[in-house]
Structure formats: structure tokens, C-alpha cells
Amino acid sequence: MVLEAVASGRVSSGVHDTVDLLAPTLGFLMAALVIADACARLGVFEALGAGIAHGAAGRPRRLYLRVLVAAALTTVALSLDATVVLLLPVVLVAAERSRVAARIHAYVVGHLANSASLLLPFSNLTNLIVVAAAGLGALRFAERMALPTLVAVLIDAVALAVVFRRDLRGVDAAPLGSPVDDTPATDPLAPRTVAALGLVALTLVGFVAASELGVAVVWAALPGAALLALLARMRPAAVVHAAQPAFAASVLVLGFAIAGVRSLGLDGVVTSLVPTGHSLGALLGMTVLAALAAGLVNNLPATLLLLPAALHGGEPTLLALLIGVNVGPNLLPTGSLATILWWRVARDAGHPPAVRDVARSGIATVPVTLVLATVALWAVT
Fold it and tell me: What is the dihedral sign for C-alpha 321, 322, 328, 329?
């Protein structure tokens, strides 16, 4: 009876801790999903796709560089889920209109959705969970993760260009005196699209300000989501659908399940596996462990499992954890929700990923990124 009471108390405490940790984080996620959906309705992604395709006909390397920039910026500003769900379709259309291979651009979007999400706390749900638990400010987080993010993005850019080099064959610059290409010029942005971009910028500023002031960022996200939903003339039912409350509830249930399992003794096992100290070897061990866990059970439950032990290691250990759970999913399509969505969106758009290409791109990028991004983190911490 005593053991049962103790176990029950631990589970109850775990449930309360999970609610305290995940409730504001999931509230922010739901608001961010509404922001991304409103941006799509207001033509932000259509305009981005037109800008990517403009002047890129027959110039695969020019299109490649533009897709790299667009994927990185979209991930940083609107989260990795917006990148794979909303940006990927317009990128594939842009490639088709530019008469260049679409495959490499699909992989660039998928990889950068994960690797570029290292930069800001708001770019990935795993970041939000860790930042909420550790109390890190947005500016400090970005300062620590800027170099690892740059390393990860550059490795993806170079390695994918090598793996899919046949897709980049073509003319990259028209010779002097040649006719202007026939790609239609992009139309001026519609006023509502410009207004949407302005609101997104202001909302991002609000995210950073709230984080620095110690206020839950959900309180900055809600006004931005409301204003963008009004600008897009979204009905209440559309707002609820965009917020995906069922997904948020499933994450909360997952958090309860992880808390219950941890309370039954798994915490001790995980703690024994997490390296201690801030040496390069310890940080590399944390990164690899997190990447393996993401590959085995998906990056969200991996984060929830490893977080309590990583908290004892301090800031560098927590950031190494994020490198592992954010970059590791590029190796396996089941490693994160974003990679699962990426596979589905690419397939539905008529470009189903090949297992061989997924393996080649993952092997070429993930191991070296885990190592060099962690070395970069160790250098700045």
C-alpha cells in the first residue's frame, strides 16, 4: 500500500508538472498554427513562390539558392511545420514552372525545416519545451545557437548539392546579349499580403520581448494570431481548425504518458545514460544520445524523456539535446512530426520521396552535422 501511495503521488506530481510545462507551450503552438494558416490565406506563400521562380527558368542553381533562403527564413519566422506544409507545395510548383528538377528542392525544404529550427525558441516545439523548462531568454538562446544553426544549414546546403548534383545541371547565367528569359515578372504584393508580413514581423518582436521579460510567449502570440485571422477574414470554425486542438491534446496526453513512465523508475535509467559535464566529449555524447532517441521514438517523446536529466547538466547540455532531437530526424522520416508531414506533402504533390534518396541525404548530412554543430556549440559556450 505504501509503495502504491508513493507511486500514485509521483504520477500526480508528474501530471501537474507536465501541465505547467506544456500548457503555455501548446497554447503558443496553436496560435502559431493560426498565424501560419492566415499567412497562407493572405497570399504570403504564393508571393514567396512567385519570387523564388522569377528569373529561375533553366537555372537550377539560382532556384536552389533561393529555396535555401526561403526555407530557412520560413522555418525561423513561422516554424518548421509551416515550412513543410505551406512552403513545400509552392517550392515544388516553382521548380516545375522553372523547368528544373523538383527532387533536390523537396529535400532542401525538408532538411532545413529541421536544421534551421535550431535558431530561435519559437521555431520548433522541442525548443519551446526546453526553453520553458530552463527559463532561457530568446536572445541568449539565439546567441548560443546562431553558430550551430549556421553550421547545420551550410552542411545541408553543400551535402545535398553533392548528393543530388545531377538535379543542379543546367545553365546558371545567361550569356551577355542573350534574350531576357520568359519567366513572367512577379506582381506587386497585394496590400493584405504586405500587411500580413508587417504583422508577422511585429509578432516576432513581441515573441522576443515577452521571452526577455519572462512572460509566456503565448501572450504575444495570441494578439498576432487574432489580428492575422481578422485580416484573413477567417471564420471561428476556420480558426479552430487551423489551431489543431486535437494535435495539442495528443501532445498533452503524450506528456502524461511520459511522466507516468518516468515516475516508475525510468528517470534513473535515463540519468545514467546522459553524459555529465560540459566537455566536448560530454556534449557530443548528449547530442548523439538525443539523435538516437529521436530516431527510435520520435523527437518529441525523446525530448520529454531526456529533459529532466539534461536540466541537471545545465545550459550547454540542454542545447546539445536540441541539436540531437532537431537534426537527428533528418536521418529517418519517422524522427519528427515535420519529417512525417514532409513525406506526406511531397507524396501528395506528385513527388513521393524514394527510400534510397532519404537514406543518401540523411547519411550525407546528419552524422557530420551532429558533430560539427556540437563543436560549434562547445566553442561558444
Answer: positive
Domain count, the chain: 1
Whether residue 209 lies inside any domain: the answer is yes
8 Å CB contact between 81 and 207: no
Compute the distance between CA of residue 297 and CA of residue 336 in angstroms, rounded to an integer: 9
Judge whether 232 and 41 are in contact, CB under 8 Å.
Answer: yes
* Cα end-to-end distance, the chain, whole Å: 48
**Rounded Cα gap, residues 361 and 185, in angstroms:** 33
* Burial zone of 324 (CB within 10 Å; 0-12 exposed, 13-18 middle, 19+ buried): buried
Neighbours of 10 (CB within 10 A): 17
Q: Is residue 186 part of a domain?
A: no
For residue range 136-165, what is the model confidence (pLDDT) as tens digits? 899 999 999 999 999 999 999 999 999 999
d(CA 362, CA 51): 29
pLDDT tens for each residue of 283-342: 999 999 999 999 999 999 999 999 999 998 999 999 999 999 999 999 988 899 899 999
Q: Which residues of 82-95 are buried (b: 16+ CB within 10 A; e: fewer)?
A: bbbbbbbbbbbbbb
CA gap 104, 94 in Å, rounded: 13
Q: 287 lies in which domain range?
A: 2-173+191-380
309's grid cell: 536529466
200 occurs within a structural domain: yes
Do the beta carbons of residue 261 and residue 302 sit within 8 Å?
no
274: amino acid identity, one letter: V
Phi then psi dihedrals of residue 276, to 5 deg:
-105, 155
CA distances from 60 to 103, 166, 177 (A): 11, 10, 21
Q: Could you give the angle at the alpha carbon of 250 between the alpha carbons of 138 and 206, nearest 5°? A: 25
Q: Give the three-class secondary structure for 350.
A: coil
Q: Which residues, other chains included, contact 207 with Cβ-Cβ below 8 Å and sequence gap of 6+? A: 120, 122, 138, 217, 220, 221
Half-sphere exposure (CA, 13 Å, Cβ side) for 349? 25
Dihedral angle sign, alpha carbons of residues 362, 364, 369, 375:
positive
- Whether 181 is covered by a domain: the verdict is no
| pTM score above 0.90 | no
